[in-house]
Amino acid sequence: MPAQIINGKKISEEIKQEVKKQAEALYKETGIVPGLAFILVGDNPASKVYVTMKGKACEELGFYSITLKLPAETTEEELLQKIQNLNSDPKIHGILVQLPLPSHINEQKILQAIDPIKDVDGFHPVNVGKLVIGLETYLPCTPAGIQELLKRSGINPSGKHVVVLGRSNIVGKPIANILLQKKEWANATVTICHTGTKDISYFTKQADILIVAMGKPEFVKGDMIKPGAVVIDVGVNRVDDPSSEKGYKLVGDVHFESAYEVASAITPVPGGVGPMTIAMLMKNTLQAAINQIAVKQLSN
């Protein structure tokens, strides 16, 4: 039986509508609008597209947003100063520095300069540490979106073997940490595979839930998947396609056609994990506004 398609586009819209209602209620109660600042350094075309999409989502949800577009030659000191200004701006509840940054800027130094309470990407070491030990915090948006996709599709990871391909700080490590927590919609046995793993298919064939985030187009084929497994494809790769008007097509890290025949459920590319990232960013920004209102009330 072919797999159930997990529709990230539909689920992300549901989340955004929920966030919009909550933000409207927050405004009625406090007069505060969630505010998000984007910092874009240089002219990476993909980064420009992502920031535009995120800004559009803010508009749809009635959030306040600003985008600081800085030239590629911006110094680390100048960027740190911009972040300090946003840290102290009461209208801004979330700060997002679009990665990658130009090579002369230390990425970690920049991420650590963001006030943890405004770190809606969930990349600050304070928030990463909270995630690892199971405290409430902002979860990185793509991994949080994966957990939400599973939850809203009725796929409970509890007691299941989850295999994650990829160990990035953006997806692989955080999703592993999220799903091994002793919490609802988690509590899984998690294995991480990476470039040092010998015989990856040995592990993928054991997965009840296979999460693929390695940046290799169509790497995972149907014969690497356990029959009836759930497949979450995080990859977005542009590959040549002479038959397409654009000359290319987008594919995931999983060979969709062969995986579709074996899996019980699968995310498509595009339209699977991708739309969830922005929805979870909006959710984190709303939470950041609520957190900052609470801090202000405590200090008054």
TrEMBL record:
Binding-site residues for NADP(+), renumbered to this chain: G166, R167, S168, V236
Whether Hydrolase counts among this entry's keywords is yes
- Short name of one Pfam family for this protein? THF_DHG_CYH
Any one Gene Ontology BP term: methionine biosynthetic process
CDD domains referenced in this protein's UniProt entry, alphabetically: NAD_bind_m-THF_DH_Cyclohyd (cd01080)
Q: Which InterPro entries match?
A: Aminoacid_DH-like_N_sf, NAD(P)-bd_dom_sf, THF_DH/CycHdrlase, THF_DH/CycHdrlase_cat_dom, THF_DH/CycHdrlase_CS, THF_DH/CycHdrlase_NAD-bd_dom
Tetrahydrofolate dehydrogenase/cyclohydrolase NAD(P)-binding domain span: 140-291
The highest taxon in the source lineage is Bacteria
Question: What is catalysed by this protein?
Answer: (6R)-5,10-methylene-5,6,7,8-tetrahydrofolate + NADP(+) = (6R)-5,10-methenyltetrahydrofolate + NADPH; (6R)-5,10-methenyltetrahydrofolate + H2O = (6R)-10-formyltetrahydrofolate + H(+)
Entry's Gene Ontology cellular component terms? cytosol
Q: In which pathway does it act?
A: One-carbon metabolism; tetrahydrofolate interconversion
Q: Which UniProt keywords apply?
A: Amino-acid biosynthesis, Histidine biosynthesis, Hydrolase, Methionine biosynthesis, Multifunctional enzyme, NADP, One-carbon metabolism, Oxidoreductase, Purine biosynthesis
Q: Domain named Tetrahydrofolate dehydrogenase/cyclohydrolase catalytic: which ranges?
A: 6-121
Q: What is its EC number?
A: 1.5.1.5, 3.5.4.9
Q: Entry's PROSITE patterns?
A: THF_DHG_CYH_1, THF_DHG_CYH_2
What do we know about how this protein assembles, alone or with others? Homodimer.
Role according to the record: Catalyzes the oxidation of 5,10-methylenetetrahydrofolate to 5,10-methenyltetrahydrofolate and then the hydrolysis of 5,10-methenyltetrahydrofolate to 10-formyltetrahydrofolate.
The family line of this record is: Belongs to the tetrahydrofolate dehydrogenase/cyclohydrolase family.
What is the protein name for this chain?
Bifunctional protein FolD
Q: Which organism is it from?
A: Candidatus Chryseopegocella kryptomonas
The primary gene name is folD
